[in-house]
Each structure stands twice: as structure tokens, then as C-alpha cells.
Input
Amino acid sequence: MAKKLRFYIVDDDPDSIEIMTELLKAEGHSVDSNTDSAKAISEIAELKPDCVLTDIMMPGIDGLELCKRLRKDPGLEATKILVISGKSYEFDKNRSFEFGADGFIVKPLNVQTFADRVYRVTEDRMDVAFWGVRGTLPVPGEGSVRYGGNTSCVTIEFPRDQLFIFDAGSGIKKLSDHLLAQKRRRFHASIFISHPHWDHINALPFFGPLYMQGNVFDIYGSSHGDLSTQQLISAQMDGVYFPITIHEFASSVSFHDLKEETVEIDGIEVSTMLLSHPGYCLGYRVEYGGRAVCYVTDNELFNADSDFFDPSYVKKLTRFVEGAEVLITDCTYTDEEYASKEGWGHSPIGRVVELAHEAKVKTLYLFHHDPDQSDDDIDAKLETARKLLEEKGSDTKVIAPGEGYMVKV
Output
């Protein structure tokens, strides 16, 4: 993080102050602190720090009352407040937000993730991460070293630690390992399924946090006629196909059917659109803080000279992704490959570039690559996209992310 910030820590535990001070100063930031919350209020008003970190349980003025008083000071409107507490209960987290906190971190601190979680709050940003970028089926081997061989899975994390997971291809196992390594416990996440083709759901049974008591998951997707999202997910875990059923999940799991609509999920606006793909397939647009992230896979954009080209659908999709900071979308084929793949439900690179340019997307992320394509083939698609955008004089940038790639939005 290039910008150097000023922090103020309020905690009646000197050891906690020492740890947080060391972590923040190691990043080049300035830190003031006080173990007396009553004295801290006047100092904070004078110093006007970028961010206040406060405990909840303190003698005299507790952390919630401190939040309330600081939020009444018009001179501190730009100051972020982050509660750092040993209380892991959802009630205390929600109460902190009600009193004006911008974020909540549970003690004991994870020294590896602490600074980055603080930055997410101070920058009020979304963190978009890629865990699997291939389509159809996983492709391990020498040809998929740089971009990875796992199928669709993308996450968005928000300042208040809301976690959105898009699709449950084999990449969700890497996400599972990541969350377990961070020792994430008692968290709430939303899982958005684009459609129930195997490369988008078949690794859900390997998502470890589902088997941990205290976690809460909401799984969203589109019903298929008389089949609900719950039935579609549970069917692949029937005893005939898989030895463990959804009844083995120890976490709290709820299923929700979505149509083309706009809903508020955990305080964040999510819009959906039915895509050009066999069966019901949803694209998602996530709005936060005046910024948008669009996840649009699997989707077929027919060439303009095709008998199946539908200009009204293209206009609708263009409006759906218009102005997005991030467009993650299906670019399965090269234009040459697509000539023999029309009607398979996936897009050629040229049409994807046209969509991103016409919609004035800030950055296009190439996604859902054909399993027969090597890392070198993806490089070639990326170079084609760059040349096409340059020819159009487009302001849109293009990136081919690999597994583990993260962008801050």
C-alpha cells in the first residue's frame, strides 16, 4: 500500500496495542494510542486520524459508545472506525455496525492478514480473487501451470467481511484451503451458482467450511422448471453419485431461487440476468460504493452474420454490464475455433471484446477457457484482445487472470 496512513488505537490491553502498532508501523504508517478511552476521544478529535481501531469491552467508555461519540463529530466524517474485539458473536458484530463501525476483526489477530483487512476498510474496497478460470473440466498438467487448471470459482470480499463466492467448480477447493489456512471460523458467506453444469457445482462437496459448525451459507441460483436450486445441488450428492449428502453439512445452509431481478444481499445490491446458454444460466452484477463487478459465464455471443444473432439480447447484456469496473466473462474460443463451435453456449474472443468496448467496461477479465487450450493459447487470446481494443481506440483494459490473482476494486 503506497499511501501512508495515520492510525489511532484505543484498547485497555497494552499488549494488543503493542502488536497492532508493530504491524502497522512495519507497513510505514504512523500510530497513536491510548488505554484510556475517555482521554482518547479528545485526542482523536484533535489528530483526525485516517482510521481508529478500538476494542469493545473497556472500562469507562466502551467501544460502542466510543463509536457513537466519534460519529457525532463532523470533523471525523472521513475517519474509518474498525472494531478489534475478542467477542466473536454475530450480535456484537452487528451492533458495532449499528453504532457506526466500518469493519470488525476478531481477536486473536492473524498477523498475516491483519494489515490487508485493515486496508480493505480504510480504502472501502472490494477484493476480487480468482480460484479457478478454466471451463468444462479441470486440466492438470504442464500446459496449465501459469493460469492453473481448475474450473470456475471467483470471490469478492467487502470491508465488512461479507464474502461472495461465484460458482463451485474445482477452484472452490483452493478457496477452501485458503480459508482454512486463515483459520476462518463462524463466518457468513453467500454462494452464487451461475448454472448447474458440472464444472460449476461438482466441487461444492469439497468445500471444507460447509462441514464446520457455526458457519452460515446462503446458496443462490436459478431454478430449472420444477427443480429448485436445493434439488439441483443435492442431486449431485445423492448416494448414487457421491458418498456424502447435504445432510452431512454441519454449517447452516439455506437455498434461494433467483430470477431476473435485483435483490439486496447482506446490504449489497445484486442484479441478475438470464444468459445465452443451454438451460437457465444467470449472470451477476454486484454494486458496491458506486462500483460494479460483473460475473457473466457461461454465455454465447453469436456473430452478427449468424442466423441466431439477437441484437435485442446484445443490447440488454450491454446495459447489464455497462460501466462496470470489472467484467469477468466467458471467452472460451478463439474466433477461428468458434467457426465450428457455434451453438455450444460459449463466446469467441472477438465478440467479448466488442461487448466490453461498447459497454465502456473499465477492465475485461478473460475467463472460462477451453480445456484444450494451453497457457500459451490463453496468452495468444490475451494478445488478440489487446490488439482488437487498440484498433478500436478503446479505454477498456484486458487481463487474463490466473489462479490466485486478486484485484482491488
